[in-house]
Amino acid sequence: MSVNKVILIGNVGQDPEVRHLDKDVTVANFSLATSESYTAKNGEKVTTTEWHNIVVWRGLAKVVEQYVSKGDKLYIEGRIRTRSWDDKDGNKRYTTEIYADNLEMLTPRGQSTGGGQQMSEPKNQQAESVNEPDFSSSEEDDLPF
């Protein structure tokens, strides 16, 4: 058995870049910053920030296009994917991305248009279909930490 699962809580680095492909397929890309703080031996507080490239497809991408903007705090579940390509000089290039399956807005209500809504990509979805997330549940889940 193998597992490829990522859970991130962070802030959106810039407004999502959204593209509309053939057959009404939408893809959104944005960066998400996560920060970690610790106290160095000299007593100085040190904060390190990691930037993650997030990719969201189809119905969830349409929701991101409508509700997510720079600075929003998000909870994201997804999986890591690394892809490669050859640049114009023939050099092999790599990028690592998080393909999001689940997304929850954590920005307080009133500070963002989408606050507090949980959004998931449907599990059994064909590549050509576009399914919107179900927002019928008004219940907000609390994070266990």
From TrEMBL:
Domain of life: Bacteria
Pfam families: SSB
Keyword DNA-binding: yes
Single Gene Ontology MF annotation: single-stranded DNA binding
Motif segment (Important for interaction with partner proteins): 140-145
Classification via CDD domains: SSB_OBF
Gene Ontology BP terms: DNA recombination; DNA repair; DNA replication
Cited PANTHER family: SINGLE-STRANDED DNA-BINDING PROTEIN
Matches recorded under NCBIfam families: ssb
Protein name stated in the entry: Single-stranded DNA-binding protein
Organism: Mangrovibacterium diazotrophicum
